Amino acid sequence: MSEEKELYLGYTTDKAITPFFQDFLEALEQEKLMKSKCTKCGTEYLPPREYCQKDLSKCELEEHTEKEAKLYSYVIVDFAPETLSSKAPYVVAIGEFPSGLRLTAHITNLMSMPEVGMNLKLAFDKIDAKKITYKWLV
Amino acid sequence: MARKVAVVAGGHSKFGKRYDATMRELSAEAYKPIYDEGITQDKIDATVLSYAASQFTGQGAGSALIADYIGLYDKPHLRVESACTTGTASLRAAWGMVAAGLYDVMLVLGVEQMNRVSSATATEYMSQAGDMRWEYPYGISFPAFYALMASRYMHEYDMPHDVLAKIAVKSHHYGAQNPKAHLPREVSFEEANNAIPICRPLNLYDCSLITDGAAAVVIAAEDRVNEFTDRPMWIKGIGAGASSMKIQDRESLTSIPGAKHAAKAAYEMAGVGPDDIDMAQVHDCFTIAELIAYEDLGFAEPGKGREIVENKENYHTGRIPVNCDGGLKSKGHPLGATGVSMTYEIMKQMRGEAENQSRQIEDVKLGLAHNVGQSGQFVNVFIFERGW
């Protein structure tokens, strides 16, 4: 882990940072989406987990290289939680990669209504100096 | 061998925006009818006094506050929390203690005071029941989780929103006849189908209410039941289930795995099946949740729940009457009170005591309560049997 920077995932400022999560965020800042893989059983997790859900062994981060996905489901949030109310409406989408791994993020460039099954492309965004995220583009 | 346990009495506050009350007074309103029936504090061995979220009030150790306020300060008590299943989780905990012989008579009281904060703040608090690292930073509110299910369901089964609007119309039809309901008024199909969006594809009338309220029941061991009532409602089956924390990790979004598991376990324990159930109280936090519940509980095959709606089989004279008290949609959803309110309603229906005969279900022998927490992480299913 490099020297710790102040980075947050997404549109809020959750301070529950761990060294493992900090490494994830620093990779994300370099536009790399990291998944994790169990060092014992090989199970992959996206988003990553530090401990395997099956055998509680340590997982290691590795880059998730798939960039294209299909829209598995979506919601257009019109009435948002207080923290994101200035951003509404926004679209939250679950995208499914060909490997079957899924990722939940905003779609930020829709010009028409989303449709389940449509193509999504993984992208990255610096929301401000400290907030970074992965996102979907259509 | 576990002892048999019955619900012997119940009470219910008025649900609504209760600016005239806090969790103290709401709890007193729920216990008062029970007290008036003669189940005074000295007859109660211990209590489970629960609410789902302390953020709404800022009150810590709330079970102590409630116990003290309703005169049970010197009886053992505890709080159980599992989001919107807090009420039935409390009943499950109390059932276990009575069945095991630890206590003979217990009060189970669920309460929530939600309207002292704005709707946006309440929505914020409830969104914090999503994964704080991976979901909350993306503004996935409580309705958003169910909208994700709705989008997928509507896609897989090619279902229009109309079906969901018809569920809302039914809920309000019965809520309008329930004097305890938060929003007791009829809505037309057009209103329900064209309301302002909240989390598309879900609109205002697809969503349950942010409600203040309380409900309470007393349970007793089989050898003590006769002291309290000649109309006991036996707890015949209990099933519980769980689902993954992150919604993206569910294999399917057209069903709640924990609910299917809970239903199966409850049916097995009770020795009955879905066709034997005379009425159900299901967790319609959103209209899509009610539709999915029909299928998870076995009242309809997967993808066929809409037939129950289209044929009005869910009305009080239908094949499987569902939420003929208005449900979470019209009666309201004070989180911690909801599961206890479901239990109370089934007892009233069995006793033929619905306030209004136009919502009274005839001859209820078996009633089912289906209570879901968050987006399915917690589920309890109870089957109750008329004991007279």
Rg of chain B from C-alpha positions?
A: 19 Å
Strand order of the largest sheet of chain B: 3-2-4-7-1-8-11-10-9
Helix content of chain B: 25-40%
Which descriptor suits the 3D outline of chain B? globular
Write the layout of secondary structure elements.
The complex is a heterodimer of chains A (138) and B (388).
Chain A: E1 8-9, H1 19-29, E2 34-38, E3 44-45, E4 59-63, E5 68-77, E6 90-96, E7 102-107, E8 119-126, E9 131-137
Parallel strand pairs in A: 1-9
Antiparallel strand pairs in A: 2-3, 2-4, 5-6, 5-8, 6-7, 8-9
Chain B: E1 5-12, H1 23-36, E2 46-50, H2 62-69, E3 77-78, H3 86-100, E4 105-112, H4 119-127, H5 142-156, H6 162-175, H7 189-193, E5 197-200, E6 202-203, E7 213-221, E8 233-241, H8 257-270, E9 279-281, H9 287-296, H10 305-310, H11 327-330, H12 335-350, E10 366-373, E11 378-386
Parallel strand pairs in B: 2-3, 2-4, 9-10
Antiparallel strand pairs in B: 1-7, 1-8, 4-7, 5-6, 8-11, 10-11
Helix pairs in contact in B: 3-12, 6-9
What does this structure look like?
The complex is a heterodimer of chains A (138) and B (388). Chain A has one helix at 19-29, and strands spanning 8-9, 34-38, 44-45, 59-63, 68-77, 90-96, 102-107, 119-126, 131-137. The mean pLDDT of chain A is 95. In chain A, 8% of the residues lie in helices and 38% in strands. With 138 residues, chain A is mainly beta. Chain A folds into two domains: 8-63, no CATH class; 68-137. Chain A is globular and about 45 Å long. In chain A, strand 8 (119-126) and strand 9 (131-137) form a beta hairpin. With 388 residues, chain B is α/β, with parallel strands linked by helices. Chain B has a domain at 5-117 and 210-227: Peroxisomal Thiolase, Chain A, domain 1. In chain B, the strands form two sheets. Chain B has a nine-stranded mixed sheet, sandwiched between helices. A two-stranded antiparallel ribbon of chain B has the order 5-6. The radius of gyration of chain B is 19 Å and the shape is globular. The model of chain B has no long low-confidence stretch (mean pLDDT 97).
